[in-house]
Amino acid sequence: MRILLAEDQAMLRGALSALLELEPSFKVTTASDGLQAQAALREHAFDILLTDIEMPGLSGLELVAWLRAQQNPLASIIITTFNRAGFIRRALELDVGGFLLKDAPSDQLVDAIYRVQRGERVIASELALQALGDKDPLTDKERRALRLAHEGLSTAQIAQKLCLSDGTVRNYLSEAISKLGAGNRVEAARIARHKGWL
């Protein structure tokens, strides 16, 4: 089974890769961020995508959203330290096969990989109830603009990165600030991040 592991923390990436390679039927390829994983997915076929949520370049959820936009039904499992309702709801909307916390026992991860590859959905029980939390009010474009603002980019830099006009980016940020009841983009990003919407 060919597994693409996308994880930006080098020590965890190495440990997970070594752990998974102990399983005789697993062949693991690693990527250190979302963009590197995207490049690997363009060039090679995999059976499972095992990805962190928060990574530079593209988040794990953005990576899965990109796969779906390509009509690629690749089975995906999200592993995260964050049990935020917004993350879980977005993962379910993207038809992610599994959602596990990083502190889960290793045998649970291996079992989840086999089950998701068979078409089952595996969501850690402690996360399932979280999915009933607040509904994410942000559009994808508002979320991307707010995420870049959270990284410290100016309106002009965000516009350049998203291939949009400055005015359009200002509108997206303004809408996000309004929807979240925030005073400014920094507060809006903090609220969205805390809820798992960013």
Automatic annotation (TrEMBL):
<dbReference type="GO" id="GO:0003677">
    <property type="term" value="F:DNA binding"/>
</dbReference>
<keyword id="KW-0597">Phosphoprotein</keyword>
<feature type="domain" description="HTH luxR-type">
    <location>
        <begin position="131"/>
        <end position="196"/>
    </location>
</feature>
<dbReference type="Pfam" id="PF00196">
    <property type="entry name" value="GerE"/>
</dbReference>
<dbReference type="InterPro" id="IPR001789">
    <property type="entry name" value="Sig_transdc_resp-reg_receiver"/>
</dbReference>
<keyword id="KW-0238">DNA-binding</keyword>
<dbReference type="InterPro" id="IPR036388">
    <property type="entry name" value="WH-like_DNA-bd_sf"/>
</dbReference>
<dbReference type="InterPro" id="IPR011006">
    <property type="entry name" value="CheY-like_superfamily"/>
</dbReference>
<protein>
    <submittedName>
        <fullName>DNA-binding response regulator</fullName>
    </submittedName>
</protein>
<feature type="modified residue" description="4-aspartylphosphate">
    <location>
        <position position="52"/>
    </location>
</feature>
<dbReference type="InterPro" id="IPR039420">
    <property type="entry name" value="WalR-like"/>
</dbReference>
<dbReference type="InterPro" id="IPR016032">
    <property type="entry name" value="Sig_transdc_resp-reg_C-effctor"/>
</dbReference>
<dbReference type="InterPro" id="IPR000792">
    <property type="entry name" value="Tscrpt_reg_LuxR_C"/>
</dbReference>
<feature type="domain" description="Response regulatory">
    <location>
        <begin position="2"/>
        <end position="117"/>
    </location>
</feature>
<dbReference type="Pfam" id="PF00072">
    <property type="entry name" value="Response_reg"/>
</dbReference>
